[in-house]
Every structure is written in structure tokens, then in C-alpha cells.
Amino acid sequence: MTTEKVKSKNPVPNRERIKMPRLHMPEQAPSIRAHEFTEVNLGYSAELARQEAIRCLECGKPTCTNDCPVGVKVKDFVQLIVDGDFMAAAAKIREDNVLPAITGRVCPQEDHCEGACLLKRKGESLGIGYLERFVADYEQQHFDLSTIVKAPPTGKKVAIVGSGPAGLTTAGDLVQKGHAVHVFEALHEIGGVLVYGIPEFRLPKKIIRQQVDYMRAMGVEFETDVVVGRTVTIDELLEEEGFDAVFIATGAGLPQFMGIPGEHLNGVYSANEFLTRINLMHAYEFPKYDEPMVDLKGKNVAVIGGGNTALDAIRSALRLGAGKAYVLYRRSEAEMPARAEEVKHAKEEGIEFHVLTAPTEFLSDGKGWLTGARCLKMELGEPDASGRRRPVPIAGSEYDIPLSVAVMAIGTTANPIVQSTTPGLNTTKRGYIQADETSQKTSRKGVFAGGDIVTGGATVILAMGAGRRAAKGIDEYLTTGQWE
Amino acid sequence: MFKIVHAQFIAPGIKRFTIEAPRIARKQRPGQFVILRICENGERIPLTIEKSDPEHGTVNIVVQSIGKTTNLLNSLETGDSILDIVGPLGKPSEIKSYGTVVAIGGGVGTAMAYPTAAAMKRAGNKVISIIGGRNKDLVLLEDEMREVSDTVFVTTDDGSYADKGLVTDKLRQLIENGTRIDLVVAVGPIPMMRAVAEMTRKEHIHTVVSLNPIMIDGTGMCGGCRVMVEGKSEFACVDGPEFDAHRVDFAVLVQRNSMYRDAEKRSLDEYRQEVEAKKVDVKQAPTEVVAAGCALEAKQ
After folding, report:
1. Which helix (H) or strand (E) holds A129?
2. What are the residue boundaries of the structural domains of chain A, listed by start?
3. A306, CA 20 to 30 Å: which among A100, A143, B107, B207?
4. Element (H or E) spanning A184, and its range?
């Protein structure tokens, strides 16, 4: 699926392009979107997309592609947008990225392609994420799935464990090589964290379903309600079900808690549970849907943490009617791991950020329900192991915030199910699966692993990068039969 | 979709289902459970597995009508289907030769105590079973328990059958009689498990309980099923559902399980109204009575 080298038809000279401002993404107004789950970003029109694409400097050595975990050929697809050939642009992205409508929405581009963009040194980077999203949505509207040509079958079978970003990427890459791909998902819907974790206003479920339909049309098979390790083991897949290789992409595991008093109170959620109730189980549509959640209308809600998950949770709380919505983060805004755009959107919507703040205790009404958090102010000290400045408590700075709901979004630990049921699968001290950094091979022959279950909690695009490497590793293994 | 190959009430409001689920049937071990979702807008609820038949690819669950979902489930019949069933979940019971094992089942809890009692017997233990219910009708699986136990005691709260009293009264008698007990396994309502734990704690008898916290995914992702075990959070879906009874904070379990009481009541009330309305609708053909929209989907 390679297309020919693209020749520039950009009508604007380079020196002029540098002066052109970045075109902003049309957005739903904050006052409206803060109360509903519809998507915040509305997407470029074809005209806006062409205008923005023209800004690309067409660098001889594109740094954007080097900094993309899946190696999207940014310059090439952007030039195809300039040419007005949006379908060819989509095909160009698909050579490296089987989930463009998803990455176009949730990838932290500022840390990858846009962060490396030469235009950034002169002003604002090219809107690569916005352009990718435009092309993917255009393709969705105009592409006929029945025209997909399947690769000739190799006769090899691969099991993918988990249908999140890593699993889907590997599945997409391998099916294009002609391998039979079967994806096992523990939940009742395909998509993993894309479905249970990321809310509708950032990544509509419809988009995920469309991308999954595309993969089905490519020949990928999906089976829901299978918890590998419990319903079937890795060894059974290899020995009894005839799979030639297995890719473990089970994702992030159990939520971490701080271990402070009151965390067991009613009203204290993990972000995973809070978001799963909302996104996967539609608790926000109770009683039309049966899964309940605590009523947030007019209540004070805080999230503890500063990552994308934290912001997804608190912005969801706001949409469910929270009277006050706080982010409590123990470092300063500069250290916040969330995407810049999400922080901006959250502020516009009225989320209050209490940085350099950490709860030390959750307060109770004496009947088991949360009434508030006792917080401590912090200051930044010396850098810690992560390279970020360590938060140090300021003595005597305690204060209480009244709260009805608190959501813990401080990270996850490794899900132990596959590791504990697969003899000979080596893990790290913290329980994550050990995998080779280039081939994603594990200590077990024929078994590969990637994504959060190897690295710990990271981003969609990093998981996809691992998925791509795994697909290459698996294809090599299946073709050569060589493990070492 | 998972087909119900047999469904039958075994007591008022308590139904046994035999469901086609070959993958689960093949892997199920005593102590494990499933999570099911009846239909598209349904919630996910955990239910214990009574037994499985790997040869025919079926699992049995025993369901007591309590809230909306269990009422809806119990309106389903042979030939209907359930949209999603996932399992077997949780760690299996630790089956080995302990000596004398007392297996205690309260109400539908007996459905989970039963496979564990059977496995304990097969592992060479002497098994004394105590099963109880509020009344005669709610004493479940007595015949099955007799088959796998050396001795079975039955209690009813109201004395309508066998010995009047609680399962713990019988356990106290055993202890007072000087019966050697190496392990107690108790499955049932939280107050019963808590009472068993208190009684055996004083006697230093190792006791295992199977906990039933609120749960969503059941696969080690959401953390909703966290229970306090010696002051630390543990997760029933990956660390349990069985825990050392003497380390469990039952008060926190009761408190957390009450979190959605209002919503649960609302769901059940609205469901009952819907059922009533439908009964009126289809008065002419009572066999056509369908519980609710969700059940219609299950009946396709």
C-alpha cells in the first residue's frame, strides 16, 4: 500500500508561509459544551484544511515524522491535502497509522509531530493533528469499505489480547500482511481505554465503531467477553487453539490510591471506575441505562491528579451538573502531564485548578459519605527520578475543601491476570511484562507484549507505536520462524 | 449472545439457569463467578457459578430476585438469551487437604458454597456443611450438599424446617462440642459472614469468606470492587473474591454496598411499574407477558 513520492504543488512561497497564522480549530462554545457530552472540537472544513496545509514548509528532513511514534509521513499527506486529494492523503496516513480518526483527536501532538515542527521555532506549529482528523473524517464519509482489497492469506494465525490502541494497531498491521488476526476483548465493547476511558466529548464512540468496522472489513475478527488468563490462557491459545503467535496488549491495570484516611468513603471513586460508569455503562443516562452513579448535580467534585485521565474525569463531572469542579494537583501547571489543549478547554469550561495542592485526608459525615478533603499546599523542591521538581509540603498550610465526590486519577498498577497465569513470562519488579524494545518479544517464544502492560500508563500514540513494532516483530517471526 | 438452555425456579424468587458458555464451562473452578449484562442498556452484575458442565459447554447460575436486573433476569426462560457473560472471574478457592472443613451457606450463598464443599470433599477433607435460610423455601441445594458432605445441618430463621435458628448457632454448637475444625468457608449475606468471622476469630479457626462488593468490569481495571483488608485496599475481582474473614472490614463493605441504594430502589420501582403496565396491555395473552423492553431484546 505505498503511493508514489508526492511532488509539491504548494502555491505559496516558503517565506510567505512562515508568516501565515495557524488556523484555529472551530470549537463548541464553552458555555454550551460544559453541559453536554457532544464533541468539543468541530473539525476543519475542506477549505480550512487546505489553508492550514499550505503552511507546511515541506522540510527536506521532516522532524515531524521522526518524532511520531508510528512514523506517519506527515509532509506527504499534508501535500496531498494541498493538492485537494483528500482520499490519497488518508491512504498515505493509513500506511503507518490504522486509527487516524482516533489519533487525530487524542494524540498529544505537542509532544510529538507538532512539538518537532520547524514552524514552531518561528511561531506556531502546523496543525498536524487537526489535519489528520480532517482527512480521517473525510475518508469515513467517502470511503467504500467494500473496496478494501485483502492481502493473500499466509496461513498464519495471531491472537491479540486486548482491543485498545496497541492491540488494534497490531491487528491492522498484521491483517494487511495476510495473517489471520483474532482480537480478544474482556469487556463487552471493542476499543479498550478508547471506549471506557476517553469521554464522548473528546472521542465519540461513533468514531471508534467506524474505525473498528474498517478493521473488520480488512478481515480482523473480534471476540468480546473473553478475559485471557481466566477464560482461556496464553498457553491454550498457542497449544490448543492453533495460534502461531500472541500479542499481549491488556493495557493499564488497577487504579492506585494514595493510602490516606477516608479513601473508602462513599463518594470517592477511582478515575477508571468513574469514567467506566460514564463512558462504557452510560451511567449519565440513568435510568434509561441501568448502571447508576452518584448524582453530581450542584455538588462539589474534585479530581486528584493532573493527567489526561484526571481532566477527562473532571470535565465529565462538570457535564453531569457539578456545581464546582476542581483539579487538585500536587505539582505546578508546568509539570502537568495532560495535553495542553485539554487544560485550555477545561479552564474555558470553568474547571478550577488548585495546583501545588495535595489531599491528606478525606472527611466523612459520620455515616460513610464523603464531605470534604483536607489539603496541604506544596512548593517545588529538587527534581525527582522523573526529572520533574518534587513537591514538598508547606508546614501548617492545611485547609479543607467541601466535596461530595472525589476522583482519584493518580495512575495505575499492572493488571496481574495474564502474568500470573502464563508460566515463564518474565515481569518487572512492578509486575509489568518485560518485552524487547524493538521487537516487543517477551521471554516466551511466540509471545509478544506492548502498550501500558509493558510501560505502565502512557498515551494512546505510544501504545500504538508499540503495536507497530510488535506487528513488525510478529511478522518477522511468522515469516522466518526464527525466535532468537 | 449466550443461550439459556434451561431455566427453572427452585424456590420462590430464586431461579436456576443453565447457560451455554463453553469457554467458561471449560475453565470454571470452585469459588469463581461470572459477570453478565442482559441487554444493551443493562448494568453488569456479578453472579456466582453453582457448577459447570464442560462436556455440554454449560454453566449454572442461581439468581435471587433482589433488584431490577435480577428480577429481569428471573423473568427469562428456557430458549431466551443473555447478551454478555464473562468469566470465570476471580481466583478459585484454595482447595487442599485441611482436615475438617465446615462449609457454611446462607440463602443463595449456598450455590457458591456448594462447589467449594464438593471440591474440598474430593481433596480428602471431612466436610461438615451448615446451610440456612429465612424459611423452608429458602434452604437451597440441600440434596446436593448432602451428596458432597459427611454431615449436613440445616437451619431456618423461623423454624419452618429443620432446626430453628441461625447457621452461627449451629457453628457455635460444633465449637462448644469440641469438634475439630481446620477451616471454615462461609458464603452468604454479609451479616452472616461477619457473625461467622467474629465467632471463629476467638477460636483462632482459619476462616474464608466470599465477598460480593459492587463491581463493574471484574477484570482488574476499574477498582470499584475494592474492599478494606487490614486497612489496605484489595480488589475482589483479582485478589478475591475469597478473603481471610478475620482481616476483612465488614463495616466498610456494608457501607460501600449501600452507595447506590436510592438509584437501585428507583430502578426496581420503575421496572415493577413497567411490568404492571405490560401485564395490563397483554391481558388477552398472558403467556406473552414480557418483563420489559430489555427482556424483549433477550428474547430475540
Report:
1. helix A128-142
2. 14-143, 151-253+414-480, 255-412
3. A100
4. strand A180-184
CB B60 within 8 A of CB B52: yes
Cis? peptide before B12, omega within 30° of 0: no
> Is B42 in CB contact (< 8 Å) with chain A?
yes
CA distance linking residue A453 with residue B144, whole number of Å: 43
CA dihedral A94, A99, A100, A101 (to 10 degrees): 140
Closest C-alpha among A61, A155, A77, A69 to residue A113: A69
Q: Where are the alpha helices (DSSP H) in A295-422?
A: 308-319, 340-349, 417-420
Instruction: Select from A80, A169, A204 the least CA-distant residue to A132.
Output: A80
* Burial environment of residue B94 by CB neighbours within 10 A (0 to 12, 13 to 18, 19 or more): middle
The whole-angstrom separation of Cα B203 and Cα B181 is: 10
B266 φ, ψ to 5°?
Answer: -60, -45
Q: How many CB atoms lie within 10 A of CB A331?
A: 21
Count of Cβ atoms closer than 10 Å to residue A418 Cβ: 26
Q: Let me know if the fold of A14-143 is the same as that of A151-253+414-480.
A: no
Upper half-sphere CA count for residue B155 (Cβ side, 13 Å): 19
Tell me whether residues A266 and B258 touch, CB distance under 8 A. yes
Q: Which domain-ending residue is among B210, B226, B241?
A: B210
How many CB pairs below 8 A link A and B?
A: 130
Tens digit of each residue's pLDDT, chain B (300 residues) = 999 999 999 999 999 999 999 999 999 999 999 999 999 999 999 999 999 999 999 999 999 999 999 999 999 999 999 999 999 999 999 999 999 999 999 999 999 999 999 999 999 999 999 999 999 999 999 999 999 999 999 999 999 999 999 999 999 999 999 999 999 999 999 999 999 999 999 999 999 999 999 999 999 899 999 999 998 899 999 999 999 999 999 999 999 999 999 999 999 999 999 888 876 655 444 444 444 456 666 665
Indicate the pairing of strand B232-235 with strand B226-229: antiparallel
Interchain proximity A273–B216, CB inside 8 Å: yes
Q: C-alpha B169: how far from its chain's center?
A: 22
| CA B96/CA B120 separation, integer angstroms | 7
Pick the CATH number of A255-412 from 3.40.50.300, 3.20.20.370, 3.50.50.60, 1.10.3810.10: 3.50.50.60
In DSSP terms, A478 is beta-bridged to none
Closest-approach residue (CA) in chain A for B239: A416
Give me the torsion for CA of A189, A192, A197, A198, rounded to 10°. Answer: -90
C-alpha to C-alpha distances, A407 to A270, A279, B29, B226, nearest whole angstrom: 5, 15, 35, 14
Contacts of B89 in chain A (CB under 8 A): 227, 230
| Nearest CB partner across the interface for A257, out of B27, B37, B233 | B233
Helix (H) or strand (E) holding B77: none
What count of other Cβ atoms lies within 10 Å of the Cβ of residue B272? 13
Q: What is the DSSP-derived secondary structure letter of residue A6?
A: P
Closest CA to A39 of A211, A191, A199: A199
Measure the CA–CA gap between A271 and A255, rounded to whole angstroms: 8
Q: Return the C-alpha cell found at A40.
A: 468539543
CATH topology assigned to domain A14-143: Fumarate Reductase Iron-sulfur Protein; Chain B, domain 2 (1.10.1060)
Q: How far is CA A55 from the centre of its chain?
A: 27
Please count the CA atoms within 13 angstroms of the CA of B166 that sit on its side-chain side. 13
Cell of A188: 463487552
Q: Which residues of A touch B (CB under 8 A)?
A: 186-188, 196, 224-227, 230-232, 251-255, 257, 259, 263-264, 266, 269-270, 272-273, 276-277, 280-282, 285-294, 368, 415-417
Amino acid in the structure at residue A202? R
Contact B32, B49 (CB under 8 A): yes
